[in-house]
Amino acid sequence: MCIRDRVTVVLSEKGFIRAAKGHDVNGDGLSYRSGDGFYMQANGKSNQSVYLLDSKGRSYSLLAHALPSARGMGEPLTSKLKPEPGSGFVGVFMGDETRVLLASDAGYGFVTTLVHLACKQRNGKACLKVPEGARVLRPCVIMDKDTDRVAVATNVGRLLVFPASDLPELPKGKGNKMIQIPASKLKAREEYCVGMVVLRLDQDLVLYSGKRKCQIKSKDIDSFQGERGRRGSLLPRGFRQVDDIAIKKV
């Protein structure tokens, strides 16, 4: 592999990692071990670092050219890194100046650049402060902080959309409140964020409730827009128990 080859780094649900040549790789179409599957992928060059975030809010970095080839099924990240017992990996990224949104399901988050996730120690470093009882949400890439919007949904069917520029840019921390969740409901895990996405101007939103899905077209997303930290608007009846949120695939 040339030191400046384009590469696609693929992370599996069980924390196995591998790198394939080129940027035309579909991680969902690769083979995985029994019980494992595709989780996330990132594009970059073989001479760049790969940045990772775990479910405890700790960050790590590895060199892309040192990763196993995607001709196999990858190697466990635990062979290269030493996360805390019981933690898994929730994000993989490349590109030093790339901005990402880091958040917990308690509804707090912030924007940071990937260089702040760099860490040479195998046990990583504290990056995202996660409130007691909360969990780390899947991080999202921000392409344009001035025009992108953040959509965050809670399990009880509340959706809030706000400008990405309303969030602070920090090297680490807890972040600011993205959506209002009553403290008593949050503590009892009666209400929490199920996910977030960063939307471009022309993208549609999809929310999942069991086997049902609710699509919100880009032209209708404005009806859910509000100030960061507000309660959000209720989704239509039948979608008051939300399992996940995603951007509609084109």
Can you write the helix and strand succession as a string?
A: EEEEEEEEEEEEEEHEEEEE
Helix content: under 10%
Structural class: mainly beta
Shape: globular
Give the rounded overall mean pLDDT.
96
User: Which stretches of 5+ consecutive residues score pLDDT under 50?
Assistant: none
Query: How many DSSP-defined strands?
Result: 19
Strand proportion: 35-45%
The radius of gyration is 18 Å
Number of helices: 1
Gap between N and C termini, in Å?
Answer: 32 Å
The main sheet orders its strands as 3-1-2-6
Specify the biggest β-sheet: 4 strands, antiparallel
Describe the overall structure:
- This protein has 250 residues and is mainly β.
- Helix content is 2%, strand content 38%.
- It has one helix at 183-187; strands at residues 6-12, 16-21, 38-45, 49-54, 58-63, 75-76, 89-94, 99-103, 108-113, 125-126, 140-142, 149-154, 158-163, 176-177, 193-199, 205-209, 212-216, 233-234, 244-247.
- Strands 3-1-2-6 form a four-stranded antiparallel β-sheet, with no helix packed on it. It has a four-stranded antiparallel β-sheet with strand order 7-4-5-10, with no helix packed on it. A four-stranded antiparallel β-sheet has the order 11-8-9-14, with no helix packed on it.
- A hairpin with a 3-residue loop joins strand 1 and strand 2.
- The longest helix has 5 residues, at 183-187.
